[in-house]
Specification:
The protein has 633 residues and is of the alpha/beta class. The protein is 42% helix and 11% strand. The chain contains 24 helices and 17 strands. Strands 11-12-13-14-15-16-17 form a 7-stranded parallel beta sheet. Helix 1 packs antiparallel against helix 2, helix 1 packs across helix 5 and helix 7 packs antiparallel against helix 8.
């Protein structure tokens, strides 16, 4: 049994445990084990005689090692077989549908013997589900829409998931000597919100035609491969355990630029580019830009060479959608696109006070380590009960605590700056830990336009940072807010968001949000469309009217950098700019590591042709940012 099969069975067991309402820690242990097994370069079947080797794998404990050994010996696990006797494997697909949590899946199985999506759809249409607890007509309508969306999106993957797989596969390929560069192409490189398949272009000495066969064999044997589709002279195609198809092309350096341009797309961009080439007596392919009359290579090694040979400025991948970029490149009017290094603050995040994982101080230190100069803590308000939202009393106490932590941090930064001037680590243990965190962060290389180096760069640095008190307040069904104005007046940042009653008609939803914008304390409109990528369609709203009103009132529209949200999308962002609406990009982080999601928000801003001057949180300090937001009464 290979590693992919082991990982699949472990992951399936975790899902069955989830349906069985098992201990969350036990479920996580199977998930972690599946991920760890999937990424091993050594087949676990060769380690059954060496238990210590299994235990050396991160995520594999004694119990899980025993499970894996039993699985390798017998081809099954008692726990999995026990759960399959109680449930069906096809029930795992039901967990991907809206409203179908583990308890609900178990309920429809015990009540209706429904174990797959087709059966669930038939039961819903026949009216069987409305007889069950908590499953009224609205639930069934939402479920049927969710089934429709699932079928439409089941072959798509969110950009962050695709990027994770691209990084993992690239790291495995780099283990082969002579690999210099690996670049994802296609829709991932263009920054599309979802990806259908993955194209990886590889180059280096090992990819030259006379030696490439060995590198091809290395790629074809990667441990992540579930099914090998094809293995050619310089291309390997395969699928992963989740059915994501991956095409790896190993290319000589001399033609790498032409291939990168061709496989990045988009299709219509390439069509327009080839037409431009033909008008100049040239022909463009994945191999080179050639002169038609004698097949002499004009450009091939780099993308910039190809665009320049066609009398064009270099066009960033995010703009290659045949949306006027060729004309702008010909006229030297392409915008200076925003990069993550332009972002100085993040104005939407949550802490352990509501549904976040980390403390105010932990979020602040993580942001400081990422080179930011200010953040706003914006925990949920009371209407979102499932998140332990804050009522007025708790919100006021939370504001006080945020200001206290900010004051404590200011004192610590003074001491750190003194230590920086001496270039000597501080003696205080906490300050020393923070010193090391910042020093370590500052050594990370900047690899692309969507990653930023911290601003801590040794003895010449001066650290300054602010924590602004804020709230993500709920917009209620009638457009009112669920905290008193007297409470909101104490906040520096008020993000107003819709979190409920998504099914309102377009006129009602639009009027609801417009009414919320009237509140003079609202400075940012959060979740302007309410969608979840591949998970929930946007609610019905006249976004044009909303952005016009926000512009008139000075309210900033938020682009949510979380790849699960990504609202506004690139078209909405361009519309916001046309209306003169202020824009902020925030991570909506619920844990310190989610601050890294800013990279995905920047990608969508670039797709919208936006520059640093279009985004408010490019302001260098918290004071500058606050001056550019809607004035407080």
């Amino acid at each position: 049994m290979d590693n992919i099969s082991i990982a699949r069975l472990l992951d399936e067991t975790a899902s069955l445990l989830e349906i069985d309402s098992a201990d969350p820690f036990r479920i996580r242990s199977y998930r972690r084990a599946a991920e760890a097994v999937e990424q091993q370069t050594t087949q676990l079947s060769t380690l059954t005689d060496d238990p210590k080797a299994l235990l050396a794998i991160p995520g594999i404990g004694k119990g899980m090692a025993a499970n894996i050994c039993f699985l390798l010996t017998t081809g099954t696990m008692p726990l999995r077989e026990e759960l399959l006797q109680k449930y069906k494997a096809t029930m795992l697909d039901l967990l991907r549908l809206p409203g179908m949590g583990p308890k609900t899946v178990a309920l429809v199985w015990s009540s209706c013997q429904v174990c797959d999506i087709d059966g669930l759809e038939a039961a819903a249409k026949a009216g069987h589900l409305t007889k069950l607890p908590r499953m009224g007509e609205k639930f069934v309508a939402k479920l049927l829409k969710g089934i429709e969306d699932h079928r439409k999106n089941s072959s798509r993957f969110r950009i962050d998931k695709a990027q994770q797989y691209a990084d993992t596969i690239s790291n495995l390929i780099r283990a082969f000597p002579g690999i210099d560069e690996i670049t994802p192409a296609g829709s991932l490189r263009r920054g599309r919100e979802t990806v259908g398949d993955l194209d990886l272009l590889v180059t280096g000495p090992a990819c030259e035609p006379d030696v490439v066969s060995a590198a091809v064999e290395h790629v074809a044997a990667l441990p992540l491969i579930d099914k090998l589709i094809a293995k050619g002279q310089n291309k390997v195609s395969f699928t992963l355990r989740n059915n994501l198809q991956v095409d790896v092309r190993l290319l000589p350096r001399a033609s790498y630029g032409a291939a990168l341009q061709y496989f990045t797309g988009s299709k219509m961009h390439n069509v327009a580019l080839r037409q431009r080439a033909i008008k100049r007596g040239l022909t463009l392919s994945e191999y080179a830009l050639l002169r038609l009359e004698d097949n002499v290579i004009v450009a091939a090694a780099t993308e910039a060479d190809i665009y320049n040979a066609l009398d064009l400025d270099y066009i960033p991948p995010e703009l290659r959608e045949n949306g006027g970029e060729l004309e702008a490149a010909a006229n030297h009017t392409l915008p200076q696109l925003i990069t993550i290094a332009d972002i100085h603050g993040d104005l939407h995040m949550h802490t352990e006070a509501t549904d976040g994982r980390d403390t105010i101080r932990q979020m602040a230190e993580a942001a400081l380590a990422r080179g930011l100069s200010y953040i706003a803590i914006t925990d949920h308000s009371k209407n979102l009960a499932m998140t332990n939202g804050l009522d007025d009393t708790r919100a006021l106490a939370h504001i006080k605590r945020i200001r206290e932590v900010d004051a404590e941090l200011q004192q610590d930064l003074l001491a750190l700056n003194e230590a920086l001037a001496r270039d000597t680590p501080p003696k205080d243990q906490h300050l020393s830990d923070l010193w090391m965190l910042l020093k370590t962060s500052s050594s990370r290389p900047e690899r692309s336009v969507v990653e930023r180096p911290p601003h801590f760069a040794g003895s010449s640095a001066h650290l300054a940072f602010r924590i602004l008190p804020g709230i993500e307040v709920d917009i209620l069904a009638d457009g009112s807010l669920d905290l008193a104005d007297e409470t909101l007046a104490q906040m520096d940042i008020v993000v107003a968001s819709v979190h409920s009653h998504f099914a309102q008609p377009v006129e009602e939803m639009t009027a609801r949000v417009l009414h919320a914008l009237e509140n003079p304390y609202v400075r940012i409109l959060g979740h302007p469309t309410g969608r979840k990528v591949l998970g929930r369609e946007p609610y019905a709203i006249n976004i044009d009217a909303i952005l016009k009103s926000a512009s008139q009132k000075g309210v900033a529209a938020e682009h949510n950098a979380s790849p699960a949200r990504a609202d506004l999308n690139d078209l909405h962002l361009r519309l916001a700019k046309q209306h003169g609406c202020k824009i902020v990009v925030n991570t909506d982080a619920h844990a310190t590591e989610e601050l890294d999601q800013m990279r995905y928000g920047i990608t969508q801003l670039r797709r919208a042709w936006l520059s640093p001057t279009d985004i408010l949180n490019t302001q260098p300090t918290a004071e500058d940012l606050l001056k550019n937001l809607r004035p407080k009464p």
